[in-house]
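Ticket reopened. Same input as before:
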Amino acid sequence: MLFSRLLIPTLKENPAEAEAVSHRLLLRAGMIRKLASGIYNYLPLGLRVLRKVERIVREEMDRAGAQEVLMPAVQPAELWHESRRWQVYGKELLRFQDRHGRDCCFGPTHEEVITDLVRKEVHSYRQLPLNLYQIQVKFRDEIRPRFGLIRGREFIMKDAYSFDADETGAEACYRLMYDAYNRIFTRCGLVFKVVEADSGPIGGSFSHEFMVLADTGEDLLASCTSCDYAANLEKAAVALEPGSASKPAGDALELVHTPKVRTVEEVAAFLKVTPADIVKTLIYETDEGSVAVLIRGDHEVNEVKVKNLLGVTDLILAGLIRVQELTGAEVGFAGPVGLKLPIYADQAVARMNAMITGANRDNYHLKQVHPGRDMKITEVADLRSITAQDPCPRCRGALMLLRGIEVGHIFKLGLKYSKALKAAYLDAEGKEQYLYMGCYGIGVSRIMAAAIEQGHDANGIIFPVALAPLQVGLIPIALNDPAVRECVEGLHADLEAAGLEVLLDDRDERPGVKFKDCDLLGLPFRVVVGAKALAQGAAEVRHRGAPDNLMVPLQDLIPYLKDQIAQELHV
RNA sequence: CGGGACGUGGCGCAGCCUGGUUAGCGCGCCUGCUUUGGGAGCAGGAAGCCGGCGGUUCGAAUCCGCCCGUCCCGACCA
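Engineering reply: fixed in the latest deploy. New output:
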């Protein structure tokens, strides 16, 4: 391919709108352009990267026995009413009406559509198991699109849905996908980790997320240093510390004046105690009323755990006014004693003896509060986020916290959608049974960004060979030198004939410009042909990211490059 | 939605506080000449309803109000 003929609008400077590395570099490398917030154009090179990802995904999905289909982007509201998600899904679901006033949405996911398709077409156990996937544009009206392709509103996703006769079959399929996903991300050249995950609003019983490890990742994960336990922080269960419920201390409640002392840190400093002696009382509003959550001062509440415990979909910290109504005090002085709300306490709180809490009175706290004696706890549960100081819930080994970008998520759905939409089949005995479902997503466009978050330097992108838009950048020094020109044009044709993907920089630019652009684009191999090397019958080859050139005789160039590329593709 | 920042040729920015006559700089773009191993030099040139609407004023990029858009931090998720 000729650089001069492709639309590759590289940028010298960082666009003001981009903060994240991948966002910046995708823009600078001329691979994407923004149309609106969270909505992007893919330019020729960006599209090539996307196609590389898609190809790997297709090959591995097909290999795992899945079949590709393509479902509509626009979906009728009726299906979403059937699954009850029209109400549940929230504002993220882009809704609109067609000319007849019929409610529609732009699909953020396709459980309803696939289940509808399958309930109409699959009626016998003989047709099972079935795994259907598509690679398609999705739209989720994200609260806050950010980081370019990492959290866009419109994005490209591979989603697969499996249908099995029974739970055993569904689990076998889940494992098949688990393995396929490992192959996909490995082939993409990504450094990733599989973690246990919360299944979120899509529902279902258990799930795993595939996380590309990157410091800029939006997700936090806990990973054990001794066993293979790893989980999303939202999910990671806190191991119950040895010990039993506390016994009431003999001391009576003590009201202390704490003027303008609100935060845990302020209270700890003021009373000369540690945050672990304090309990914070968080007032939440849910779709089923207000509740109080008790968390030890040095811990962080895990709202996903709270949501799951309460079985609610909305969970929002109460506002200033609401807190005053419910506690009778300003924010910072709430406490469980005498509070007329359901109280949910974290395990660690139930173990405390003499804790310090707000007094539900402005500028006062209570000391010597005992959870068993002084309050009515509705339920004790694991409600906090795990920390690096906690032991591994599986082996009690040491944990470390990592950041990751979620690029894949597999769910065991069970019967949720097949029951809601009445998708059933007849078994060998002629009995009607619901289909066991699973669903499996991959953020195709996000992978492109994740790969860059993981592979870049000061000069630009460092793509894994498997994802690079082209494998080789071919740079002539002084195209007006007839010998150079002839050599480079011959090389270009020969390399392409040998099946290599080559970008010949035929622009009338100075060498420095071409080097800079070649680095920026992240092409894995750079081949430079200049008069000096040519005199020795050689070309200079540089692996992206490597410090030095290697002189390769022209006749060895093709085998050398093919060998190098093959090596990297089969890691 | 809450908090913060920003909106000036294609891109990055200055000018605004302290209103004033042709709105500047760098990069990019076009033409010519000279250059050609890490984002060249010289000369010439094109390109801006200063995000929009309204107000204050003799006069608004500049002051005030409203709106729109974008980005960053938090609540959602591939």
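Chain A has three domains: 3-237+401-453, 254-381, 470-569. The mean pLDDT of chain A is 92. Please confirm and we'll close it.
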